[in-house]
Amino acid sequence: MGRYIGPVCRLCRREGIKLMLKGVRCETAKCAMERQWRNRPPGMHGWRRRKPSGYGIRLREKQKVKRYYGVFERQFMIYFRMAERAKTNTGEALLSILERRLDNAVWKLGFAPSRRAARVAVAHGHIYVNGRRNNRPSYLIGQGDRLSVKPSERSKKFIRSVVGDGAPAMQSWLGLDVEALEGTINALPTREDVQIPVEEHLIIEMCSR
What we know:
Ribosomal Protein S4 Delta 41, Chain A, domain 1; 8% strand; Structural Genomics Hypothetical 15.5 Kd Protein In mrcA-pckA Intergenic Region, Chain A; 5-stranded antiparallel β-sheet; alpha+beta; 38% helix
């Protein structure tokens, strides 16, 4: 399984937006995008701003989404083929599939400070789906699924330290019981639930070539 082990702030700087790859740090003044001298593309030539080509614009949209959800090219194309077979708009179907990833749902429920941390929590067996252990971050959740924490003191203490005492703000497709540390999938995510600014039609145009 491949994974990116370089500095993640470079990815945000390259895409020009906050990808929320470091959790709480991204919301503070320590974020690289908050510093005027660092909020440009990385590298010694990052200060040069050339007019991007049509291909470059489409590539940046695709890379932005891949890095935001933490997927690589092969898996992203699998999701694209699934979206192509959907009866709804291909772009909206693609974003909905990415939102349904288990690691994304765990992060949005507040069980982890970032998607990368959520991926680790799932891979280490801290998360159960419908009462059964699931260590696949790429697992696609469905409507009615229940996400809970492993019934062990160590796992509950770990998740409780992240969630805290109060319930975080939930999107309409998610529900959370803070006391039981259990989340429910009330509905499938829609285009409005995607929090990253993206023009999905540019991604579809590039992947369809």
